[in-house]
Amino acid sequence: MSAIDYSVVVPAYREAGNLRPLVTRIFAALQRIDSPVPAHAVEVIVVDDNSRDGSVEVVQALQREGYRVRIIVRTTERGLSSAVVRGFQEAQGDNMLCMDADLQHPPEFVPQMLAALSPTKVFVLGTRYGGGVGAIDEGWPLHRRVISNGARMLALPLTSASDPMSGFFGIRKEVFNKARNLNSQGFKIALDLLVKARIPPHAIAEVPFAFGLRTEGESKLDSKVMIKYLLQLAELYWYGYHGVVAFLFLGIFALFVLFLRWWWSDPVTRQVTVPPTTGKGRAH
Fold it and tell me: Which parts pass through the membrane (predicted)?
């Protein structure tokens, strides 16, 4: 079997219905005549948090069909970021890519993302904010757009990357190995790596893409996830700035937490109400 130069890591929890289309679409894209990366040099690693939903059987069936894919089932750990870290640690390729299992990160972009990595471009980021693809899909509800843009704005002082929230990113193995004190409980491992691996702006490649549509499973976005992200931001600000700047951010962070708690706990207050009619002017 040929050597592996590229590894695609897919953290998953209860995503059995998406694994087959994800893997087959990845390798279909790699087998195109214009693919800059050969399919035989790529492996896919699914890191599953003990879903017990048939994910193992799906991967085994794909292996029998000749796809270079394997699954790591974790029974003592949970969480997106720690799953990505585990996948990168297990990866055989020097060029590593992370993508979601829900098909919102289009598999057709995998060859381009992998090819963007090089000794001079050690980090690649799939961005929704460039190349005319549009910042957010038109189908997203208003509150999802507010959350996404708010999360991105809060991260701007930490990195020059345009979209560290996308979760569709790649990194060179030697750079990943240099990162210290990674937050395995954090919500956005890409942002953690950008800060703690001290990746300079000139070493970041960006590939514009638009979110695809989830076809199976459920979205993991909820208030708890957003609170985890804000806690991660607080830790990164303290790591990167210390002192007064970190203190100021913590104040903004506290206000944002209060806003989120209000947003999810009392949706009725956000609705526009129409004053009751007084009955004047009605015909009797």
Answer: 236-260
